[in-house]
From TrEMBL:
Residues 322-445 form the 3-octaprenyl-4-hydroxybenzoate carboxy-lyase-like C-terminal domain. The keyword Nucleus does not apply. The keyword Secreted does not apply. This is Phenolic acid decarboxylase. Its EC number is 4.1.1.61. Residues 10-84 form the 3-octaprenyl-4-hydroxybenzoate carboxy-lyase-like N-terminal domain. GO terms for biological process: response to toxic substance; ubiquinone biosynthetic process. PANTHER family: 3-OCTAPRENYL-4-HYDROXYBENZOATE CARBOXY-LYASE-RELATED, FERULIC ACID DECARBOXYLASE 1. Pfam families: UbiD, UbiD_C, UbiD_N. Belongs to the UbiD family. It is an enzyme of class 4 (lyase). Keywords: Aromatic hydrocarbons catabolism, Detoxification, Lyase.
Length: 482
C-alpha cells in the first residue's frame, strides 16, 4: 500500500525498529554529516534529528540507506520485484487473445493508477504560506569542510517545458547563496538544462518549484533515468500503485505533490549572469570543482504545520544514494534486456558510484559480441557516462565481484580485449583532461573463440565431480567443521 507522505514512511520505519530518534541538539554544519556517515558505513538505521541548531524543523537522513529500507520505500520485498512487474506489464503476449485480455485486466487497472490527480484545493504542503521566504530557517546542511556552503541535497526540482507544457522533475543540488537565492546545478546533459535552454530563447523568467519531503517513491522517481515522454509523477504512481495527488503552486502554474513537507517556489532569470557554484563533496568521494550555474530566486515557501526536513549526504560509498542507484539498476534491467535480449544480468558496483563501472553478463552468440554490447550501452542515455564496461559470459554472475575479478585478471589479452572509446563523460568526472569529454574503457572478459583469433586451446575451469560434491554435502555435519 502506498505511503500517504514522508511521515507515513517514517512511522513505518519506526514501527519496524529501523529508525533512530536523536533528541540531543545537533549542528547542521558538519556534525550531522559525521554522524550519518558513520552510521551509513555500518549499514545502520535511518536517523531523525529532533532538535537541530538554528531551526525549528527536525531532520531526516539515511532513510533509504540499506537494501531493506530502499525496498520498503518502494513497497516491495526486493528491488527485483519492480523489474519483474515492468517486464510482465510490457510483455505484449499478455494482451493477445480474449482470455489473456481478461487475465490482464488487473494490470490494465494498475496502469490507470499511474495518472496523477490534480486537486482543485490547496494541499497539506500549503498549510503555511511564507511570502517573505528565508532559507536560513531551514536546517540545510553543510556536509563537508571544503564545501562552498550549505546545500539542499534532496530537492525535487520541477519545471515545465515551454513548448510542450510537459512537466519535468529532477534532482539537482541547490547551494544556498543567501536567504532567498540558491544555485541551480543543471548539468549540461540533464533535462532541466535542456528546458532552461528553451526558456533562454524566449527570455524572461523561468518558473521553478522545488518539493522537499515526499512519499519516497516520488523522491526516487526524480532520480530515475526515464525517457523524456514519461512523466516522473506517472512513474511514481506506477511504483506506489496509487496516483500522485498534485496541487498548483501558489505563485506559478507548476503542479507539485500535495503531501510534500515543503515547497520552495521561485524562478530562474535566463538573462541573468551565471554564478559560481561549488565546490561540493560529491558521491565520487572527491570535491567536485566549482563552476558557473544559473541562479534560483525564491519568492515563496509553503509547508505543513509540522514538517520534517529530508536530506542526504554524498561521499565515499556506501551511502544512501548508492541504494537509490541500485534501485535503478534492478528496476530498469528488464527494459535493457528488451533492447538487448542477449544480456543476462548487470551490476553497477557501489564503488563505481553510478557511472564509473558496469559489469554485464551476456549469452555470447557470435565473434565480437562483447564489443557490440559495449558500444550499444555507451549509446544509451546516461550509460554514455560509463567509464568502464566489463563483459563476462552468461555463467558468471555480475554480482559476484570475486569471480568477475578472476575472469578479468585471467581471461584477457590487453591488445585484443581492451576497447578504448572516446565520448561524453559525466560532469563530475575529474580524471579526464577535458570537462564532459574523454575516454572510456571496455574489457571483454568472455571466453575467446577460434573465430575471434584465439587459436590455442582454451583451458577448462577447475571443477570437482558432482558425486564428490554430493557426498561432502551429505556428510558435512559429520566433519565437525561448523
Amino acid at each position: 500500500m502506498a505511503y500517504k507522505d514522508l511521515q507515513a514512511f517514517i512511522k513505518h520505519l519506526d514501527e519496524k525498529g529501523l529508525l533512530k530518534r536523536i533528541s540531543t541538539e545537533v549542528d547542521p554544519e558538519l556534525e550531522i554529516t559525521e554522524i550519518a556517515d558513520r552510521i551509513s558505513k555500518k549499514y545502520g538505521p535511518a536517523l531523525l534529528f529532533e532538535k537541530v541548531k538554528g531551526s525549528p524543523y527536525p531532520v531526516l537522513i539515511n532513510a533509504m540507506g540499506t537494501y531493506e529500507r530502499m525496498s520498503m520505500a518502494l513497497n516491495v520485498e526486493k528491488l527485483d520485484d519492480i523489474g519483474s512487474d515492468i517486464e510482465e506489464f510490457i510483455d505484449m503476449s499478455n494482451y493477445l487473445g480474449l482470455m489473456n485480455k481478461i487475465h490482464s485486466l488487473p494490470k490494465l487497472a494498475r496502469m490507470a493508477m499511474v495518472f496523477p490527480i490534480k486537486l482543485p484545493t490547496k494541499g497539506a504542503c500549503q498549510e503555511i504560506i511564507e511570502n517573505a521566504p528565508d532559507l536560513s530557517t531551514l536546517p540545510i546542511l553543510k556536509c563537508w569542510p571544503g564545501d562552498a556552503g550549505r546545500f539542499i541535497t534532496l530537492p525535487l526540482v520541477i519545471t515545465k517545458d515551454p513548448e510542450s507544457g510537459i512537466q519535468n522533475m529532477g534532482m539537482y543540488r541547490l547551494q544556498v547563496f543567501d536567504k532567498n537565492t540558491t544555485g541551480m546545478h543543471w548539468h549540461l546533459h540533464k533535462d532541466g538544462r535542456e528546458i532552461y535552454e528553451k526558456y533562454k530563447l524566449q527570455g524572461g523568467k523561468m518558473p521553478v518549484s522545488v518539493a522537499l519531503g515526499c512519499d519516497p517513491a516520488i523522491t526516487y522517481s526524480a532520480t530515475a533515468p526515464l525517457p523524456k515522454m514519461i512523466d516522473e509523477m506517472m512513474f511514481a504512481g506506477f511504483l506506489r500503485k496509487a496516483p500522485v495527488k498534485l496541487v498548483k503552486s501558489i505563485t506559478n502554474d507548476i503542479y507539485v505533490p500535495a503531501d510534500a513537507e515543503f515547497i520552495i517556489e521561485g524562478y530562474v532569470d535566463v538573462n541573468e549572469e551565471l554564478r559560481l557554484e561549488g565546490p561540493f563533496g560529491d558521491h565520487t568521494g572527491y570535491y567536485s570543482l566549482a563552476d558557473y550555474y544559473p541562479v534560483f530566486h525564491v519568492i515563496c515557501i509553503t509547508h505543513k504545520k509540522n514538517p520534517i526536513y529530508p536530506t542526504t549526504i554524498v561521499g565515499k560509498p556506501p551511502m544512501e544514494d548508492c541504494y537509490m542507484g541500485k534501485a535503478t539498476e534492478r528496476i530498469f534491467l528488464p527494459l535493457l534486456k528488451m533492447q538487448h535480449p542477449e544480456i543476462i544480468d548487470f551490476n553497477f558496483p557501489l564503488e563505481g558510484v553510478f557511472h564509473n563501472c558496469v559489469i554485464v553478463s551476456i549469452k555470447k552468440r557470435y565473434p565480437g559480441h562483447a564489443k557490440k554490447i559495449m558500444n550499444s550501452l555507451w549509446g544509451m542515455g546516461q550509460m554514455m557516462y560509463t567509464k568502464m564496461i566489463i563483459v563476462v559470459d552468461e555463467n558468471i554472475s555480475p554480482q559476484d565481484l570475486s569471480t568477475v575479478a578472476w575472469k578479468v585478471f585471467n581471461n584477457i589479452d590487453a591488445k585484443r580485449d581492451i576497447v578504448i572509446s572516446e565520448g561524453p563523460l559525466d560532469a563530475l568526472d575529474h580524471a579526464s583532461n577535458l570537462p564532459h569529454y574523454g575516454y572510456r574503457m571496455g574489457i571483454d572478459a568472455t571466453k575467446k573463440w577460434p573465430s575471434e583469433g584465439h587459436t590455442r586451446e582454451w583451458p577448462d575451469d577447475i571443477e570437482m565431480t558432482e558425486d564428490i560434491k554430493d557426498l561432502v554435502t551429505r556428510r558435512w555435519t559429520e566433519y565437525g567443521i561448523d
